[in-house]
C-alpha cells in the first residue's frame, strides 16, 4: 500500500472514530457535533465562527438554582436570565397583514424561552388598533411595519407556563407606552395573570430584602410586573421600575469594557435604597452573528465591572439578545456565576452544593 493510500485510510479511521465516539446525545460541552441530537441534555449544536471552527455543543438552558439548592432566601438573593425585547422573535408572522420591517432580538418563542430557564422578559407595550400590542417603534407610536403581536398572546404564554410550573416566578419589565386608562390592567386580567400578581404593598422601597421566594410560591404571588411609567404605580398598582431597581445603560453605551454607567432613568447603581440590580449587555442594533461573542467572556467581565459600580452588589437580572448564542456556556454560565456569588461567594452556583 502506498503512502497516499495509507494516509487516506488513517484519516478515514480517525474521522470514523470521532463520529463514533460522539453522537446520539453523547457529545459534551464544546464537543464537535453535526446536529442537536448529538449533544447531551441542556446543550445544542451551534456554530460561532468568531470563536471556533465548525459546530460544537453549547449550553441551551439555565441551572435552576431553586432545585439545585433551595428557594428559602429573599427574592433579591437570586439572579435571573432576562431576554431583551423577548417578543421581537425572528420568524414571528405578521399579525397586521403588512410585512414587518424592524429588528429582531430573539430566536425562540416565549414558551421556549421560559422552558429554557429565562425568568425575566423585557416587553415594549403600545396602544395599537384599539388594544395593547408588543412593538418595536419610536415616538411612542406603534406602526403596522413595526408591530409584532397583541400583548395578550404573549401574556397567555406566560400564564400557561406559570400554571404548568407552580414553583416558578416570572418577572415582566415593561418599556411602556400605553396611555389607555387601565389598558395594562385589562390585558393582564384578560390573560388570566391577575391571580399570580405580586402585590405592590409587598415590594420593599427602601432597600430592604424582598419576601422569601418560598413564601412567594406558597402565596401564589409569582408574577412581578414593572412599568416605566411612574404614574401607573398609583393609578393601576403596577410597580414603577426605578423605585425598586437600579439599571445600567442599555445598548452600545453599556458595552464599554471596564465602565458600567447607570441608565438615565435609574438612580446611581450604588443606590442601596433599591434592592434589585439589572445589568444590560447588548448592542443598540442587534446582530445575531456576533451575539455568541457578546454573550460569552465579555458578558461575565461586564458583570464584574457592574458589581463594583453597584457598590459590590451582584446583578439580579442580566439582559441579553439572542440568549442561547455563545462560545460555550454563554449567558447560562454568566447566570451560574451570579447565583454562585449571591448564594455562596463562589464563581459557579454548582460549587455551592459542596
Descriptive notes:
The protein has 354 residues and is α/β, with parallel strands linked by helices. Helix content is 27%, strand content 16%. It has helices at 3-21, 65-68, 110-115, 151-164, 183-190, 213-218, 232-235, 288-294, 297-309, 330-344; strands at residues 43-46, 56-59, 80-83, 120-128, 131-135, 147-150, 170-177, 223-227, 239-240, 245-247, 276-280, 317-320. The strands form two sheets. Strands 3, 4, 5, 6, 7, 8, 9, 10, 11 and 12 form a ten-stranded mixed beta sheet that branches. Helix 9 (297-309) packs parallel to helix 10. The longest helix has 19 residues, at 3-21. It is globular. InterPro entries: PI-PLC_domain (IPR051057), PLC-like_Pdiesterase_TIM-brl (IPR017946). GO terms for molecular function: phosphoric diester hydrolase activity. Residues 1-21 form the signal peptide.
Please bin the fraction of helical residues. Answer: 25-40%
Total beta strands: 12
Shape: globular
Q: What's the quaternary structure here? A: single chain
Task: Return the CATH topology of the largest domain.
Answer: TIM Barrel
**CATH architectural group of the largest domain:** Alpha-Beta Barrel
- The low-confidence runs, each spanning 5 or more residues with pLDDT under 50, are 5-19
Residue-averaged pLDDT, rounded? 94
Percentage of residues in DSSP E strands: 15-25%
CATH class of the largest domain: Alpha Beta
> Helical region count?
10
What class do helices, strands and sheet pairing give? alpha/beta
Largest sheet: 10 strands, mixed
Radius of gyration, Cα only, in angstroms? Answer: 22 Å
Distance between the termini: 56 Å
Order of helices and strands: HEEHEHEEEHEHHEHEEEHHEH
Task: Give the CATH H-level superfamily of the largest domain.
Answer: Phosphatidylinositol (PI) phosphodiesterase
Please tell me the total number of domains.
2
Amino acid at each position: 500500500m502506498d503512502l497516499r493510500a495509507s494516509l487516506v485510510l488513517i484519516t478515514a479511521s480517525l474521522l470514523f472514530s470521532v463520529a463514533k465516539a460522539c453522537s446520539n446525545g453523547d457529545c459534551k460541552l464544546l464537543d464537535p457535533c453535526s446536529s442537536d441530537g448529538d449533544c447531551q441534555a441542556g446543550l445544542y449544536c451551534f456554530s460561532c465562527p468568531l470563536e471556533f471552527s465548525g459546530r460544537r455543543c453549547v449550553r441551551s438552558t439555565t441551572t435552576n438554582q431553586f432545585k439545585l439548592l433551595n428557594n428559602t432566601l429573599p427574592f433579591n438573593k437570586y439572579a435571573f436570565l432576562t431576554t431583551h425585547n423577548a417578543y421581537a422573535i425572528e420568524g414571528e408572522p405578521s399579525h397586521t397583514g403588512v410585512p414587518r420591517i424592524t429588528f429582531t432580538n430573539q430566536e425562540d418563542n416565549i414558551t421556549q424561552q421560559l422552558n429554557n430557564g429565562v425568568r425575566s422578559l423585557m416587553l415594549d407595550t403600545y396602544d395599537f388598533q384599539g388594544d395593547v400590542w408588543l412593538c418595536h417603534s419610536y415616538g411612542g407610536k406603534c406602526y403596522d411595519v413595526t408591530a409584532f403581536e397583541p400583548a395578550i398572546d404573549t401574556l397567555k404564554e406566560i400564564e400557561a407556563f406559570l400554571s404548568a410550573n407552580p414553583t416558578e416566578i416570572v418577572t415582566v419589565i415593561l418599556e411602556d407606552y400605553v396611555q389607555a386608562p387601565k389598558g395594562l390592567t385589562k390585558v393582564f386580567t384578560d390573560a388570566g395573570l391577575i391571580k399570580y400578581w405580586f402585590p405592590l404593598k409587598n415590594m420593599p422601597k427602601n432597600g430592604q430584602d424582598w419576601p422569601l421566594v418560598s413564601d412567594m410560591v406558597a402565596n401564589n404571588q409569582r408574577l412581578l410586573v414593572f412599568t416605566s411609567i411612574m404614574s401607573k404605580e398609583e393609578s393601576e398598582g403596577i410597580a414603577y421600575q426605578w423605585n425598586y431597581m437600579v439599571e445600567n445603560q442599555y445598548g452600545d453605551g453599556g458595552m464599554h469594557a471596564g465602565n458600567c454607567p447607570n441608565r438615565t432613568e435609574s438612580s446611581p447603581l450604588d443606590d442601596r435604597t433599591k434592592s434589585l440590580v439589572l445589568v444590560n449587555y447588548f448592542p443598540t442594533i442587534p446582530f445575531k452573528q456576533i451575539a455568541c461573542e457578546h454573550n460569552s467572556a465579555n458578558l461575565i467581565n461586564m458583570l464584574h465591572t457592574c458589581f463594583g459600580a453597584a457598590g459590590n452588589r451582584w446583578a439580579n437580572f442580566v439582559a441579553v439578545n439572542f440568549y442561547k448564542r455563545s462560545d460555550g456556556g454563554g449567558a447560562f454560565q454568566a447566570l451560574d456565576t451570579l447565583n454562585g456569588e449571591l448564594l455562596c461567594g463562589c464563581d459557579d452556583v454548582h460549587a455551592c452544593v459542596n
